[in-house]
Amino acid sequence: MTAGTSVSGRRAALLLVDGARNDVFESLAEAGELPHIERHLLGPGGVTPATTVFPSTTGVAYLPFLTGCYPGTCDIPGIRWLDAARYGGDWWRNRDHVRNYCGYQGEKLNTDLPDGMRTVFDLVPDSLALCSPITRGLRDGRERVSFGRKFWGSLAHYTAGYGPLDRAVGQALCRLAPQRPRFVFAVFPGVDGVTHFHDPWHPAVLEMYRQIDGIVGAYADAGGFDGDHLTLLVSDHGLERVRRHTDISLALEAIGLPTLRHPILWRKDPEVAVMVSGNASAQVYFKPRVLRERRFHVAEIEAGALAGVPPTVIDYLAALPGVAMVVGTDDSGLTLISRLGRATLSETDCGRIAYRPDTADVLSLGAAGEYSDREWLARTLETPYPDAPVQLLQLFRSSRTGDLVVIADVGYDLRVEWEFPEHRSGHGSLIAAHMRCLVVSNAPLAGPVRTVDLFPLVLDYLGVPVPDGIDGVIPGKVST
Questions:
Q1: 323 and 394 in one domain?
Q2: Is the distance from CB of 199 to CB of 21 less than 8 angstroms?
């Protein structure tokens, strides 16, 4: 902090480049192709090793930045989910208890959060949001590029023409820079959208990164970096090339299980519901017509306690091509099932997390272990499933999480039917290419960090008290 500048005079901006991969970004930076980011962010600060949350999918993975909480804590376990306690099987009357944030229900991201959960917009009244689907707590008139997000975003979803939308966000960002709001949250959907049509290293994708660099330069020229200012350039997930699709819904239909799935929500007497996110993970709910307050455990399913559901269904799903693992609950925690065998995850009485391979090292961690939350982050950052012990447990905090969660392997996603347009690259899984994300700051940050940590970081920098009960922790004081 410069002499004579109080905390109350500080400003912060969080620029979210949806889907930006840390390795693609660093390759472009090292080649000198991001000169404005180098000057205004990398020079005074740098890149911090970081992971996102599970499921690693747009919208849901925005929540940590704005709430400091995991999707499980937010009770939003994916971009599609079913509330087994409220969905009674009437596809019309109960339709509001089956969620799809990709369509007309997108605005419900704001109302599905738990009562009393406060966003950064609640805590920092002088906030502005650009192109954000999450606006809870934002004061009237403080939302920008809302029409552009809906119009250009809908068009670009089918054409890959995301350039105009990102430019519109950049222009709005530059216009508001002289106003010096305390906090700005700006979303740039282009990298994610274009990568879905190609692969993470495609020239059209790399050009979207360069466009972001130009926007950063224009923002600086407009005064965005003037004064005591924290700027974070981040992503909500990475992406990986999809080389093959394995449709979980069709696989369950093939063994005689009528399956409820989007967009077909009027299926007669379904035995199972499949809700896909990203499209590399899926929530699976058995007996979706039966109102219930708890999940079916793995042992119940495998004991044949669910009439009409084969007791072998879990092993069947785990053996499908492209499925990395299937995760469900047991009496003490989680059971992880892969084609190689099983492992367990549980929380101990002293607040640590225990991982125990039973017949297989499902998470490829090399051995059993019992560590704290933060120790697991550091120990798993470079493994095939970064932060998986913490991320799997947090997801099952949500009452809306399925009986099973199916997770795709490298090079696969879990949807064929109704994937319009076809994803040539995707996300949503626990694999490293999806979980590793970008965190760049104009001030050095201690790492590794999770995206939930940036919420308390911003509040602390602005001198705003950090709420109790959040999942994030401040990753070290920001020095300027």
A1: yes
A2: no
Amino acid at the residue 13: A
Q: What's 215's domain CATH number? A: 3.40.720.10
Bridge partners, 347 (sequence order)? 353
pTM for this entry: 0.95
Q: What is the token pair recorded at 244?
A: 């093959």
Distance from C-alpha of 272 to C-alpha of 269, rounded to nearest angstrom: 9
Residues facing residue 309 across a β-bridge: none
Note the pLDDT of residue 115. 95
356 and 211 within one domain? no
Query: For 294-324, what is each residue's pLDDT tens digit?
Result: 999 999 999 999 999 999 999 999 999 999 9
Evaluate whether residue 89 is within a structural domain. Answer: no
The reply to whether 28 and 172 lie within a common domain is yes
Distance in angstroms (rounded) separating the CA atoms of residues 73 and 109: 14
Beta bridge partners of 311: none
Ranges of residues in the chain whose predicted pLDDT is under 50 = 1-5, 478-480
Place of tokens 């009986």: 403
426, 196 in Cβ contact below 8 A?
yes
Which residue range(s) make up the domain with 136? 10-76+113-239+436-462
Q: Kindly report the CA angle at 21 between 107 and 187, in degrees rounded to 5?
A: 30
What would the DSSP string read from start to end of 423-463?
Answer: PSEEB-SSSHHHHB--EEESS---S-EEGGGHHHHHHHHHT
352 and 390 share a domain? yes
- pLDDT, position 477: 53
> Is residue 20, in this structure, part of any structural domain at all?
yes
Domain count, the chain: 2
Question: Does residue 352 contact residue 371 with C-beta atoms inside 8 Å?
Answer: yes
Q: Are 472 and 456 in contact (CB under 8 A)?
A: yes
Query: Do 289 and 308 share a domain, yes or no?
Result: yes
Residues 6 or more apart whose Cβ sits within 8 Å of residue 405 = 281, 282, 283, 284, 326, 327, 328, 392, 395, 396
